[in-house]
Amino acid sequence: xxxxxxxxEQHHSLLTPDGVALAYRLTRRGTPRPAVVLLHxxxxxxxxxxxxxxxxxxxxxxxxxxxxxxxxxxSISHGRIGMDVWCADLAAILDAEAIxxxxxxxxxxxxxxxxxxxxxxxxxxxxxxxxxxxxREALTGTLARSARxxxxxxxxxxxxxxxxxxxxxxxxxxxxxxxxLDQEAREHIAAEKAGFPSQRYASPLEDLRHFPLVAxxxxxxxxxxPLPPPESIRAPVLVLLSQGxxxxxxxxxxxxxxxxxxxxxxxxxxxxWIPTEQPDVMRTLIxxxxxxxxxxxxxQQI
Length: 302
Prior knowledge:
Keywords: Hydrolase. The protein is an alpha/beta fold.
């Protein structure tokens, strides 16, 4: 018998009580199944996961959900955002889709959000996959400097929100397709025989061409904020770290994560953008991790 084709991804929107439309896409066949939720990073959007969704086999056995966090892309908002808001939004989406718990997969700021959600809603998290989590103690370069100036940066947020309420913000922002950007980066590396074009991926000016300033500043505060202590996370955790140190020290990050009660750490040959630089290896590791925990669930039900 020929296996059934994976179900098509469907676009959804959830209106929050304060009037923000949260955009997300869901791959589901029939009734709800165990779910994998994909969380993007700072100044990013759900297209960070377009290539993964197009190539993964997870949709055969899992519901796969990816979303634009509030303040990003199709979930546009010029109001307050941050870990507490995103955790509440994620819980609301899971409720709306009848998902009692999920495997959370997060990149960069999305990994930090996964940790916060697991700390606040432990019963709703099966396992975590953290791709480049950003511990404040391990930050380097621009993010380390931003962390030192968090109190000053936070002072700008009320003024930016007030300006937005008064209508003083850009009405049209060109969208960015991160899957397309990733492909262009790989073509550049192949053609020029050069290293990874970090300047395109790590430029605030480039980010702000596509992203509201009020959201960007709040993203910066979120990614440089404190994280729950590793020992408070009870869910099994797969951590994927790059060998690069432009944003965070991989050695110190791994050391901080050693106290995870059920953790496994893999280090990949990448600068920081593992979904861009090592998409196939990343996908395989995530699929194997999900397979492993699905088998464990089946064994426990016997």
